[in-house]
Amino acid sequence: MRATMLERFKHGSVHLLRWSEKYTKTDMIYLAQGSAWSAIDTILSALISLATALAFANLIPKETYGTYQYVLVVADLFGILVLGGVDTASARSVARGMEGSIFDGLRAKIRWGLLGGAGSVMLGAYYLAHTNPTLGWAFIIIGIFIPFWEAPTLYAGYLQGKKRFDLATACDVIGQLIPALVLIPCLFLTHNLFIILAAYLLSWGGVRALLFWLTIHLLPPNRARDPDMVTYGKHLTVMTAVSTVASSADDVLLWHFLGPAAVAIYIFAQAIPTRAAGVIKTINRLAFPKFAATDSITLKQTLPRKVILLFGISLLGALAYILCAQFIFTLFFPQYLASVHYSQLLALIIAMQPFNLFSSALSAQAKKKALYIYNFAVPAVRLILLFSLIPPFGIWGAVFALVITDVFDSAISATLFYWA
Q1: Which of 3, 27, 362, 207 is nearest to 199 (CA)?
Q2: Domain coordinates of the chain in residue numbers?
Q3: What is the pLDDT of residue 195?
Q4: What residues have CB less than 8 Å from 96, skipping those under 6 apart?
Q5: What gap in Å lies between CA 13 and CA 121, rounded to an integer?
Q6: Among the listed residues 399, 306, 411, the one whose alpha carbon sits nearest the alpha carbon of residue 348
Q7: What residues contact 247, with CB distance under 8 A and at least 6 apart?
Q8: In this structure, are residues 157 and 91 in contact, taking their beta carbons and an 8 Å threshold?
Q9: How far is it, in rounded angstroms, from Cα 68 to Cα 343?
Q10: Which of 129-137's residues contact partners 24+ apart within 8 Å by CB, and which partners?
Q11: Which of 41 and 417 is assigned the larger pLDDT?
Q12: In this predicted structure, what is the pLDDT of residue 34?
């Protein structure tokens, strides 16, 4: 009897989803299956992030946390040389059946990552020579890890290309949980920046390497290789390099103009809006393999309607957060109440997130010319705004720059989507 009821429920759910496709113009069965895993991922990731944020907010001084974030931001700049674009390129190649390309990507990322590591070590030596041992040794530690810290993340693109969202969810949760289980006790025991940094790098690097190994053993790749994958990955890396610099510039400028405490306040102001935007961003992960296998004419006919529908939903989410922000910070982050008003304005990032589907479609379709325009124009606008607004307005300048850039991002991605 129970099995019969379950079968009826399943049949009814499938029927309802198929019926809704008349209005959404989307494969709702595929979306529901992927969304279920994304929902699990989102909930568990949010809980892990909350626990980690609570530990950082309540266990170490703002100055230490600000310095920690500054070092990681600069590490991301050196991490550009690890060819992060190869991850996206590999997802595209795997979705097209050329799974063996993942090993070409791994070798290329490690090889180029050695240059990034050397750059970080040289920066550390510079700081040591100028009597700043804290930043000096921090960047030397970072430099040792850079080549091997980012390279194994190819497993995520591999699973995305194979549409194994169940395993992708498991890997994502494990990849966050293990570092959190290492970091949080570490924060209870010490405020020492070097120990905290080493704990972070060892745990993240180790779990990524483990997940890569497990992925290729659970789902052995075929021997088909995409000869253009690494080249396309390099193109994507060049395209996003300016974006990476622009996304780091706000923290760097705030550090130099206002100090580490301001960086900490700004980081917490972004924390919840960024995490909420990430909920919507998971749809990009689900959509990417579909975009790669769909012709551009069909996409132009169907995608805009979906973006508008998602925009309405995300706008309601942004408004809800604006109303709840004061309560959330009072309850969880009382040391960072100065972040509340900044965070409320940054909620607009949540509303604009669905427009990223247009740029995701451009990547999936390998529209190189449009992608170059998009990936240079958006960060250029952000950099101009940051350098113009942070010196006179401080944290408010950084917040205004982010919101204005997001609106511009949405407009240009939609324009290029129609033009390409």
Answers
A1: 207
A2: 33-227, 228-420
A3: 92
A4: 161, 226, 292, 293
A5: 56
A6: 399
A7: 76, 379, 382
A8: yes
A9: 21
A10: 134/67, 134/193, 135/67, 135/71, 137/194
A11: 417
A12: 47
Paired tokens of 122: 């040289």
Pair 383, 247: CB distance under 8 Å? no
- Residue position matching structure tokens 């019969």: 4
31: tokens are: 């979306």
- 268-315: per-residue pLDDT in tens? 999 889 887 776 666 666 666 666 667 677 777 778 888 888 888 889
109-141 per-position pLDDT tens digit: 999 989 999 999 999 999 999 888 989 999 999
What is the tens place of the pLDDT at every residue in 137-190? 999 999 998 888 888 988 988 888 887 877 888 888 898 899 999 999 999 999
Assigned token pair, 303: 């995608």
- Both structure tokens of 323: 């109303």
Task: Read off the DSSP letter of residue 334.
Answer: G
Written as one letter, the residue type at 12 is: G
Which pTM value belongs to this model? 0.75
Q: Which of 209, 195, 76, 73 is nearest to 141 (CA)?
A: 195
Separation CA 313–CA 351 (nearest Å): 8
Q: Determine the pLDDT at residue 109.
A: 92
Question: Is the separation of the CB atoms in 154 and 229 below 8 Å?
Answer: no
For residue 98, the one-letter residue type is M
* Ramachandran class of 227: left when φ > 0, alpha when ψ lies in -120 to 50, beta otherwise: alpha
Backbone angles phi, psi at 305, to 5 degrees: -60, -40
C-alpha span between 287 and 302 (Å, rounded):
13
